[in-house]
């Protein structure tokens, strides 16, 4: 089993007699690569991330992270960093201590964790902001802190659920450059859920198109646009909102 993330025939239903959120999704994201998941609202994008992260258990099928079947493995032991649309930061901690938090949980000293955190704050270009309170940050800065915090735990896999959708277009472009920097510096395997086709094309190696809980196509950006596997894919790529 290779590194990266591998879903095999994954299904997920919530409760009884409901339309399944995921049906037989098989998806391989190679180690160090970036796949963007595109699809309409309610198509199962977040559910894919949640079953990889262990926030939801699968109803059927298997999930491998870095070659390990993670069934029953607690979320915090899966080596995964998560960033959501709205950053969940600790309002009572400074910027630096927010980033240092996950390292502290690992048992490191306060000074060691702060040095470690400073490195990731530098990476997201907030090196001078460590002493500030969270409340003093803009939305884009908060999102960068959330990314630094996720990275500080040294995850092999980074899962991003519409992380930039609340930001204005100029800031979103900065975030795309930041992801490039993160990829060059750390080479995590990245799965990015987005509504934004241009964002997917700008940052990802591959796009996974999902509709009604089914994966329609997972392919290079170029092939998704020029060799869509079905009219549904071309329609979704032409008319996502
Ligand atoms: P997306 O992220 O693509 O908008 P989701 O993965 O959040 O879609 O949801 C996929 C489907 O699963 C939707 O129909 C949604 O209502 C349903 N769903 C997601 N989470 C839950 C839950 N905790 N309980 C019940 N239904 C859920
Ligand atoms: Mg979602």
From TrEMBL:
Q: What are the protein's UniProt keywords?
A: ATP-binding, Cell membrane, Ion transport, Iron, Iron transport, Membrane, Nucleotide-binding, Transport
Q: Does the keyword Transport apply?
A: yes
Task: Provide the E.C. number(s) assigned to this enzyme.
Answer: 7.6.2.9
Which Gene Ontology MF annotations are present? Answer: ABC-type ferric iron transporter activity; ABC-type quaternary ammonium compound transporting activity; ATP binding; ATP hydrolysis activity
**What region holds the ABC transporter domain?**
5-237
Q: Which top EC class applies here?
A: translocase
Query: What Gene Ontology terms describe where this protein resides (cellular component)?
Result: ATP-binding cassette (ABC) transporter complex
UniProt protein name: ABC-type quaternary amine transporter
């Amino acid at each position: 089993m290779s590194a990266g993330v591998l879903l095999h025939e994954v299904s997920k239903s919530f409760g009884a007699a409901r339309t399944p959120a995921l049906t037989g999704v098989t998806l391989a994201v190679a180690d160090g690569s970036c796949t963007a998941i595109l699809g309409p609202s309610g198509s199962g994008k977040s559910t894919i991330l949640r079953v990889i992260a262990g926030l939801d258990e699968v109803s059927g099928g298997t999930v491998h992270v870095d070659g390990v079947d993670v069934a029953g493995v607690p979320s915090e032991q899966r080596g995964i960093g998560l960033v959501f649309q709205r950053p969940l930061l600790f309002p009572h901690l400074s910027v630096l201590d927010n980033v240092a938090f996950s390292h502290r949980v690992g048992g490191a000293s306060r000074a060691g964790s702060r040095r470690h955190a400073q490195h990731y704050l530098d990476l997201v270009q907030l090196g001078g902001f460590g002493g500030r309170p969270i409340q003093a940050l803009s939305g884009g800065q908060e999102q960068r802190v959330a990314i630094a915090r996720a990275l500080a735990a040294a995850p092999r896999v980074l899962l991003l659920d519409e992380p930039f959708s609340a930001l204005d277009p100029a800031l979103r472009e900065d975030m795309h450059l930041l992801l490039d920097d993160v990829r060059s510096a750390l080479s995590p395997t990245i799965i990015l859920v987005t509504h934004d086709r241009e964002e997917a094309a700008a940052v990802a190696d591959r796009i996974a198109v999902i509709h009604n809980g089914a994966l329609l196509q997972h392919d290079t950006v170029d092939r998704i646009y020029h060799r869509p596997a079905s009219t549904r894919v071309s329609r979704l790529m032409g008319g996502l909102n």
